[in-house]
Specification:
Layout: H1 2-40, H2 49-76, H3 83-99, H4 101-110, H5 114-144
Helix pairs in contact: 1-2, 1-5, 2-3, 2-5, 3-4, 3-5
Length: 152
């Protein structure tokens, strides 16, 4: 019974936490990073409500996907220091790059800023992965007691 409870908590907490963390780090953080890139290009950042909502929603969706991807990673990648979170962030960065129209059109939009934009996105996805992994580990440790989660 307790094992089933823990499994349900893990199955629900990872995707929900992923969406929440993704909204903040990938969504809001992504929008702020876009403004920073515009400033680096010596351009005035432009914000629209629709554009901002799109970026935040995409952050939440990629975050949800990250939470789902974390579930099998918890079984396969040991959590030594930051390894699992970094792995998750890099996998999600690759998924985002492959599935995003931004990836195909980025060279047109950023020109010489591509290395900076890729660097910023990489850091954001890795930070997302590490934060999510640690958050889910804490939730599971709290619900199962100290040492009750062998995957952490």
């Amino acid at each position: 019974m307790a094992r089933n409870r823990r499994l349900w908590i893990e199955l629900l907490s990872a995707p929900l936490a992923g969406a929440a963390v993704g909204t903040l780090i990938l969504g809001v953080g992504g929008r702020l990073a876009m403004a920073g890139i515009m400033l680096l290009r010596a351009e005035q950042p432009r914000f629209s409500l629709g554009g901002s909502l799109d970026v935040v929603l995409m952050g939440a969706l990629y975050g949800l996907l990250g939470g789902v991807l974390l579930l099998p990673l918890r079984r396969v990648v040991p959590s030594r220091k930051l390894r699992r979170g970094v792995t998750l962030g890099l996998i999600l960065l690759l998924v985002g790059w492959l599935t995003s129209s931004v990836g195909r059109d980025m060279s047109l939009a950023l020109g010489p800023m591509i290395p900076s934009a890729i660097g910023i996105a990489s850091v954001m996805f890795v930070v997302y992965g590490v934060v999510l992994d640690r958050l889910v580990a804490r939730v599971l440790a709290h619900t199962t007691g100290p040492g009750g989660d062998p995957a952490t």
